[in-house]
Design brief:
alpha+beta, 19 strands, Beta-Lactamase, Phosphatase 2c, domain 1, Bact_Sigma-Reg, 6-stranded antiparallel sheet, Serine phosphatase RsbU (Regulator of sigma subunit), PPM-type-like_dom_sf
């Protein structure tokens, strides 16, 4: 039997594997603290709304909701926590006073996997750590991203900790339709998406999948609100994923989803959709527009809609055919997909092209916060009347080389 390691990253992972899923992070924090001599180690998850970091906390004795998790706002990007998440780099800062030694420091390490910002690791140390200790902290934070990704399959702890507000039934269904990671960095592209509000309504979805030579992206918007819309969305997304995994082209995928919706809802519910398949070698894009707002292309400092001809939404009419249309991305292009909640009602007041031009060099992950914040501001603090969903795809061009440190690309964006 191989000998267990008590030191370094191997020791951390051995300890996690021996612990029950609900205690994995507690064990990870304790063991890392022992290895680097930390006074305290804390793991903060990003919350559902993307507005705060939430300290991973066990529910109170009365169950979830009986104890409020500690939160750190990300609204002020000049504060250390916000900067660490945005910049995706380890930061060493003076520790808060509280009677600690003059040389005490606080280390903030992003917990990230392939660009998906899962959270932040905070360590309080009595003195500035050496380079070896900092390297271990950075590697441990990266490993923790994979620990969380694995362990949350077995417990609701991570979901409970991220919920600032009660989640409606429609919101619960909708969350299960979304990909596990809202950001993906690869050699050819960087992708990020977001949906607002995170806890209510239901109907909007986005999805993506990567294979050896193609990236598949979809965005759908089901008619109506609440649970009925979430159930329509479930049928549409399930059908599209089934077709994608069977190797069907986009036109056939949309046709199958249309048949499923007509069969089960008798023409009384429909779903708009935008389906894309990107060739990772050429940048060529196959597209199906099922009655959905066209994607916006940011190229050479200008924003324009991609001229796609829309077909009927899925679920309207049996036998509807869906055309596969084509366009090509150039290195440096940015493609933005939206649902109508980003462009209708109060959101009309948002200068979307202006925002996209001003933030053309902003990482897609951060651009999602910029866009959703603008829509929320336009609503004047009132709850959104419809889901507002956005997805950003930055196209870097062919090649599979990606320079990354601790789970995040060294240079994100085009």
């Amino acid at each position: 039997m191989p000998k267990r390691s008590d030191d370094g990253l191997a020791g951390l992972l051995d300890a996690v594997e021996a612990a029950p899923p609900v205690a994995a992070v507690d064990v990870f924090e304790r063991r890392l603290g022992e290895q680097v001599g930390a006074e305290r180690v804390s793991f903060f998850l990003t919350d559902f709304a993307g507005q705060a970091l939430v300290r991973l906390t066990h529910p109170g004795a009365g169950g979830p909701g009986t104890e409020r998790a500690e939160q750190v706002s990300l609204d002020d990007e000049t504060l250390p926590y916000g900067r660490a998440v945005i910049e995706q780099r380890l930061r060493v800062l003076p520790a808060p006073g509280d009677g600690r030694p003059a040389g005490a420091v606080r280390v903030l390490a992003p917990v990230t996997a392939r660009g998906d910002a899962i959270g932040l690791l905070e360590l309080l140390l009595p003195q500035h750590p050496g380079e070896d200790a900092l390297a271990l902290v950075a590697a441990a934070a990266h490993a923790l991203a994979y620990v969380v990704t694995t362990e949350r399959r077995h417990t609701d702890l991570y979901e409970w900790s991220r919920r600032g507000d009660p989640v409606s039934l429609a919101g619960e269904i909708q969350r299960q339709l979304l990909p596990n990671a809202f950001t993906c960095e690869a050699g050819q592209f960087t992708l990020a998406a977001w949906l607002e509000p995170a806890s209510t309504v239901g109907g909007d979805t986005f999805d993506y999948a990567l294979d050896a030579d193609r990236l598949y992206v979809s965005m759908t918007d089901a008619m109506g609100h609440d649970t009925a819309a979430a159930l329509l969305a479930t049928l549409a997304v399930g059908s599209l994923r089934n077709g994608r995994r069977a190797g069907h082209d986009l036109g056939r995928m949309a046709g199958a989803a249309n048949r499923a919706l007509v069969e089960h809802h008798d023409g009384l519910g429909f779903v708009t959709g935008l389906l894309l398949s990107v060739d990772l070698v050429t940048g060529g894009v196959d597209a199906v527009d099922a009655g959905h707002p066209p994607p916006l292309l940011v190229r050479d400092g200008e924003v324009r809609a991609v001229p796609l001809e829309p077909d009927l939404p899925m679920g309207v009419l049996a036998g509807t055919g869906y055309r596969v249309q084509r366009f090509r991305l150039r290195p440096g292009d940015r493609l933005v997909l939206l649902t109508d909640g980003m462009v209708e009602r109060s959101a009309r007041r948002v200068d979307l092209p202006g925002l996209l031009v001003r933030h053309r060099d902003t990482h897609p992950r951060q651009l999602m916060r910029v866009l959703t914040a603008a829509v929320q501001e336009a609503a004047g603090g009132e709850p959104l009347a419809d889901d507002a969903t956005a997805l950003c795809l930055d196209w870097a061009g062919p090649g599979d080389d990606r320079r990354a440190e601790a789970g995040a690309s060294v240079t994100g964006g085009p």
